[in-house]
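A favour, since you know our structure tokens better than I do. Would you make up a two-line entry for one protein for me to read? Write everything out right here, beneath this request.
=====
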Amino acid sequence: MATYPLATLACTITSTGITAPSYTDILNSLTASFQGIYGSDIYIDPDSQDGQWLATLAQIINDGNQTDVTVYNGYSPSYAQGAALSSQVKINGLRRDISSNSTAVVNVGGQVGFTITNGIAQDSNQNLWNLPATVTIPLSGTIPVTVTAQQPGAITAIAGSISVIYNPQQGWQSVSNPSAASPGNPVEMDSQLRQRQSVSTSLTALTPLQAIAASVANTPGIGRYKLYNNPSSSTDSNGLPSHSIAVVVEGGNIMTIAQTVEAKKSPGTGTYGTTQETVLDPAGVPVTINLFVLSEIGILVQVTVVPLTGYVSTTKTTIINAIVAYLSSFAIGQGSLLGKLFGPANLYGDAATSSSGLTQAQLDVLSATYNLPVTNIYQGRSDMLVTGGPYAAGISTISIANVASLANGRSIIVSQADGSQLTATITGISGNAVSFTPAIATGKTINTGAQVLVNGDLTIAFNEGAQCTAANVTVLP
């Protein structure tokens, strides 16, 4: 029978951290001690009572050691988890962000004088949104109000998607959101809190830009954020004036962020943005701070796969989830490159593994059941919409609201009134007028508001952020 050397059973702490012996080493050490007492010929194989008792003792010691490792690492923000991490970041003046609910401004229409009580609207994804407790229809027949998603977290709703009256009431005739909802926040994950803790150490940084970024990152309710700086003596490519900064934020209290910028920026540095807040400097003098509230841009994707042997309908859902996870990870100002979209659409990469819970090897098996040429991937911004319609058969030039991502020679898809799609090639762009071939077919019509998708890259401005949900992704057939 084999004998094993005695080994340390407890954890060991050195200058490099804490280590613990493996379960196997613990069991071998106990086995050696047992044989030293009762003789090397004692029978302690796994099927014996003594062997099972030694295994039980080894498991108890191993469990205790793992607890010690967890407790030890809990004193470091880099390794702490859950409640331990929440406690550790208090040293940096931080608190874990709790969940919040998405909000949206909707126009409620109805008969003048009628009051809607505890109204509920529904969006195209079946999410429910609560109106204020009472809403009275004014003489104009419509009134803008703020609705709140019933479920906490980042519930998204693109413009026009909150359009269903969930609990009809007398006098209530319509509801619609003219702009996208402001997403709420889920409970902050450990990885996000660790990132904020790391950034917070720059609060006392020597450079004002680092200090501003750190303070903005620690604003309660903040989502994505980005800081731009133009130290030159001329306007830069983003439109920032000379010697100015621009802060772009998603969520958080705008007044608090403005106060942070005023307190941390260098004297004489200008601020740039479409949102203005007036704050007081240390001497009590009013100062106007300009910044940008992030513009959420919905990204729509359509992929047409070529099924091969073994392709099943559930693979379609896996593809959709991978694409959504990929686009949802975009930073502010990050455009969607068509070639990069090919990876998650083929179930390859971090977005595919994280959204599916499968290993890359398992995803490779699914990916082998279909083919996806790059020419079969189309994407579009939610504001790439047809204007000035309707356009009838024979017409080969239409007006599109946002043409920044379009170019001659690119293939586009345009939704038609009967639910079909026109696939055409762009032959010319003049202002917002886009010419293409072939022309609209006989019996087909393209209406105002029709979505346009392009087989090419999408441009995202420096103050915009991509947003994508499962409802924005279509996989055919």
